[in-house]
Amino acid sequence: MPITGPAARDVTLEGDKQAVTMLNDRVLVRVPPSEGERRSRAGIVIPATAHVAKRLAWASVAAVGPHVRTVKVDDTVLFNPEECFEVEVQGDEFFILRERDIHALAAERLGGGTGLYL
Question: Which residues contact 33 (CB under 8 A, 6 or more apart)?
Answer without folding.
Answer: none
